[in-house]
Amino acid sequence: MKKIQIFGLVIIAIAIGIIVTTAGDASTYVDFNKAQQMADSGDNESIHVVGTLKKDAAGNILEMVYQPEIDPNFFSFTLVDNNNVARKVVYKSTKPQDFDKSEQVVIIGRMQQDAFVADKILMKCPSKYEEGKLETTEHTAQKS
Amino acid sequence: MIHHTIGNAGHLLVIIAFVTAILATYAYFKTTQASTSLQDLETLNSWKRFARTTFFVHMAAVFGVVFSLYWIIGNHYFEYHYAWKNSSLSLPTGYTISSFWQDQEGSFLLWIFWNVILGFILIFTNRSWEAPVMTIFALVQAFLTSMILGVVIPGIDLKIGSTPFLLLKEVMPDMPVWKMDPNFIPKDGNGLNPLLQNYWMVIHPPTLFLGFASTIIPFSFAMAGLWLKKTHEWIRPALPWSLLSAMILGVGILMGAYWAYETLNFGSYWNWDPVENTSFVPWLILVAAVHTMIIARRNATALKTSFILTIATFVLVLYSTFMTRSGILGNASVHSFTDLGLSGQLLIYLLTFLVVSIGLLIYRWKMLPSDEEEVSTYSQEFWIFIGATLLCLSGFQILATTSIPVYNKIAEAFGTVLNLALPADQVAHYNKFQLWFFSLIIILTGIGQFFWWKRVGKDKLQALYNPLLLALVISAAIITFEGVKDIRYIAILTASVFAIVANGSILLDILKGNYNLSGGAITHVGVALMLIGIMFSSAYEQVVSINNSGLMISRSEEFTQNDNKENKENITLWLNKPERMGEYMLTWKDVRIEPRHIPSYISKSWVDLIEGDYRAVALRDIVVDDKQYYAKGDTLEIAPENFYYEVEYREPSGRVFNLFPRVQINPRMGGIVSSPDIQRKVDKDLYTYVSMVTNPTAEPVWSQTENFTVNLRDTFFVNDYVAVLDQVVRTDDVEGMQLAEGDAAVKAIIRILDNEQEFVITPSFVIRDRMVARKPEVNKELGLRLQFQEINPQTGQFTFSVNTTQKDFIVLKAIEKPLINILWLGTLVLVIGFILATIRRFRDFIKMRDREAKADKRKPGKSKTSVVA
Fold first, then answer.
1. Predicted ipTM of the assembly
2. Given B404, B433, B670, which is nearest A26 (Cβ)?
3. How many CB atoms neighbour CB A62 within 10 A?
4. Are A92 and B433 within 8 A, CB to CB?
5. In whole angstroms, what separates CA A120 from the centre of its chain?
6. Are B322 and B352 in contact (CB under 8 A)?
7. How many A-B residue pairs are in contact by the CB < 8 A criterion?
8. Which pLDDT tens digit goes with each residue over B449-507?
9. What residues form the membrane-spanning segments (chain B) (predicted)?
10. Are the C-beta atoms of B811 and B570 separated by less than 8 Å?
């Protein structure tokens, strides 16, 4: 076998390795029921859940807790996923600043007991200047 | 009055630019054909003249378009959607330029603009290559100008491009105002996103787009080489441009990174955001291409690879454009453009060049030379080739992950639902590969240089021993001294140190001879320094603001696990209340604003902000550094979105410094955006930002009034504080009131005791013409408002009314980033290296070109055509 062929094979092997690992690392979009099932079966993988905030008829956000004067690193709210399943979400960092205005929230994390512990929150806020178009912002609970 | 003329002119010029680009493509194509088929000189020259003329007309039209758009923005013609959306009257002039490329159309225009400049330079620096290269150039221009064409083909209702010259009325025809006044012109525009009002945002986009634009040059030369069967000759004129392009694109990316570090609050310069990634991948491939081009003259495999990589760079730039502008990223990115309905057009653009270039390459593949014998493992070519391959693998890995949203879309097109999301922990995901790739790449830079300059061969490997030994000793010292324990960090550190030593020793040798040749070694040292800086500043970053105030009220078990260690990285600071953080004593002292014509921030309490305006009224004389800028009552211009939180840091040594992290009220970004302030030290940066504030523009919400009737020296409780009425005295000085004769004024002196501090509040009580005026006093630290309500002469008692509110606080996070300056130093070294390399290769090209010209003159009979061509 020529050197160049061996070389080519090695490259192909690495490329396949990259693709396989990427597929393994890629997260998925799921709903809360699936997230619960995954947690129950001991699957600790980080997942994405898309949903909206729980609001009353007047548009006020319900069940949202953030008390920076007591603990600036604890924020919780209730998210309703696309199948109308509501779950408590806990985000162990500061409340994202534009959170109240967000129309759609993507949480990344996993279910732990009854609550979803989010490591990262992505928000889609209605942009004032672009009707019907949403802008995304991103927040991460950083770990030391 | 609506200024129709300028918009119509702009639109017309876009169409002219589009048409002339197509004409120029055809004309240059014909010129190329004429020169290869050796037709008579007459035909060739006439085609060439025509091609040049159309390109110059195209150029003039592009300048006209740029001028028209700038005229509209600069003169505040808010009847135009682009000006209305992206600029405003109050925008400082410097940033008016940035509003030009704030939106998609403008940024395409910027790209088009750079392309004509580059095309112009190429026409006058190349002789034989002009026609084929410019054919590709003009074709690209045709595609780019079509993006801003804004023409709807009647009948099939097909929209081609999106023009920046639309009137507001045309973009938003449903606004009710048009019914009342069809000639309505907004008084002011929306302004530039305040986040982008930063000097880096004035130079970062043009640099980045120049980087993108310049990748077309090596691509065009490669295409021309294939077309004219000059499979080797294209390298020499293309190489200096590849180097220049790599430098500019690299600098553009780094400027963006630096802007993000200074302005955004994710605490870093790199976020693995798809937009960042898709500009970084072409750069990696371009750098790989530069390396294979250098050895292409000696090695046929490298030549073939140079073709592939040069084409790949350009196609990846197009792919990047497609990703960021088609809306395909959707959820995945923070800063992609919104979809303008151009996705189809962008896809056609991408696929055209993909198919044409790969098609041409395959068509000519058989003609490319092959190596007669195997390349030796001990040859320089072998090592450089391995390095280039690793760069490509690194790029491939980033691309494979970044394209996840694209896989979803492709699956959707085939009717399946993939639901794939980007990895939850992107940093870990990318590092897992990139750290090892770059450790190997940086080692290869050292080895490659030794093989290249020292002619290290099979029996001369010992030349490498000395640098290796030296590198190991230095790394061991750093590892011990800095306490690096993780094997991954030890690996990249040792690799980088080896690269510095190896390239450094080569550099010393070269400098003895000809410094012109030192570009490569210097660039490599720069990259190695950057890697060391990146490793330390991110792997050893340390959160300083660990919350240890004891306020943490444990809720349920899940949050108290790990000894509450997790996620306590933000601390709450109350106004004027010192708090310990790490080795520092922190006090939040004030909120400040940014006046436009004073070189420092001033206290917000000095002025009254005018709502919805960019001006404020001075409440007192504004004196900064003994210079009076404004008198009380003057109006001053400020940056209305920006508030700076003055935080005092007291070091154990007693040294005090202030940081001013910024909070921006920015409706475009959904509300409040905070930016850090950075204390820069030689060995580390202290990076501080506020993650939460009470809205600085909101009025406080006061509780219900509570009345206290007390005697002198009585103690009472307000808002859980102990208060003592010390005295009531006569006063002649009541703030905000001119006391006249016959007026009587008294003020109460009330002491309020907090844990560590004592405050004195002095509400006053004024009698004027038998009318009572009560001047309340507000204390922000305590969240209290006291009003002197009543004096009862009979009982000698005094009544005060008290309201309370939420005390002002900020939530702050502070991070230390060690050795980040090595990263910036490395960047500088990298740029210097690239410049030297570019100059050297450009000189090579000029020499060759002039030699060819001379040779042609000496043999006039043989090939007359190439003299003129």
1. 0.82
2. B404
3. 11
4. no
5. 5
6. no
7. 167
8. 888 887 776 777 788 888 899 999 999 999 999 888 899 999 999 999 999 999 999 99
9. 12-29, 50-73, 108-124, 136-156, 208-228, 240-260, 280-296, 303-322, 342-362, 382-400, 433-452, 464-481, 487-508, 520-540, 819-839
10. yes
| Percent of all residues in chain B with a pLDDT value above 90, rounded to a whole number | 45
Amino acid at B78: F
Query: What angle is formed at CA B334 by the lines to CA B330 and CA B339, rounded to 5 degrees?
Result: 40
SS3 readout for B230-295 = CCCCCHHHHHHHHHHHHHHHHHHHHHHHHHHHHHCCCCCCCCCCHHHHHHHHHHHHHHHHHHHHHH
CA distance B669 to B596: 23
**Separation CA B29–CA B101 (nearest Å):** 32
Tell me the chain A residues in contact with residue B389 when contact means C-beta distances shorter than 8 Å. 7, 11
pLDDT of B771-814, one tens digit each?
Answer: 888 888 888 888 888 888 888 888 888 899 998 887 888 888 88
Query: Which chain A residues are within 8 Å of B543, Cβ to Cβ?
Result: 142, 144
Q: Report the half-sphere exposure of B386 (CA within 13 A, side-chain side).
A: 24
- Contact check, Cβ <8 Å, B670/A140: no
Task: Check CB contact under 8 Å for A135 and B547.
Answer: no
Task: Reply yes or no on whether the pLDDT at B564 is more than 50.
Answer: no
Measured CA to CA, the distance from residue B346 to residue B329 in angstroms comes to 14
CA distance B83 to chain A (A): 13
Nearest to B244 by CA among B850, B836, B845, B826: B836
Contacts of A71 in chain B (CB under 8 A): 547, 551-553
Interface check for A3 against chain B (CB to CB < 8 A): the answer is yes
Longest dimension (CA), chain A: 74
pLDDT tens across B192-218, in order? 877 788 888 889 999 999 999 999 999
pTM score, whole prediction: 0.89
Question: With an 8 Å Cβ cutoff, is A14 touching chain B?
Answer: yes
User: A115 to chain B: nearest residue by CA?
Assistant: B558
Instruction: Say if CB B184 and CB B90 are below 8 A apart.
Output: no
CB-based contact B433 A19, cutoff 8 Å: no
Q: Which helix (H) or strand (E) holds B825?
A: helix B820-858
B552's tokens: 């943490």
* Distances from the Cα of A43 to the Cα of A35, A40, B559, angstroms: 9, 7, 20
Contact B604, B614 (CB under 8 A): no
B91 burial via Cβ count (<10 Å: 0-12, 13-18, 19+):
buried
Taking CA atoms, B587 is separated from B409, B593, B696, in Å, by 51, 18, 18
* Cα distance between residue B649 and residue B544, in whole Å: 12
Domains and CATH numbers, chain A: 28-140 (2.40.50.140)
Which residues 115-144 in chain A show a CB within 8 A of chain B?
A: 115, 117, 119-120, 122-125, 127-131, 133, 135-138, 140-144
Q: What is the mean pLDDT of chain B?
A: 87
CB atoms within 10 A of CB B366: 7
Collect all residues of chain B within an 8 Å Cβ-Cβ radius of residue A48. Answer: 421, 424
Closest-CA residue of chain B to A144: B543
Q: Which two tokens stand for residue B626?
A: 């003994």
Chain A hits for B551, Cβ within 8 Å: 69-71
State whether residue A48 sits within 8 Å of chain B by CB: yes
The most distant pair of C-alpha atoms in chain B lies apart, rounded to whole Å, by 125
Q: How many CB atoms lie within 10 A of CB B425?
A: 18
Q: DSSP E strands: which ranges in B660-770?
A: 662-666, 671-675, 677-680, 684-693, 706-710, 715-718, 721-730, 744-753, 758-761, 764-768
Residue B557 confidence (pLDDT) above 50: no
Dig out the tokens for B594 from the structure. Answer: 């940014």
CA distance B219 to B280: 18
Residue B114: pLDDT over 80: yes
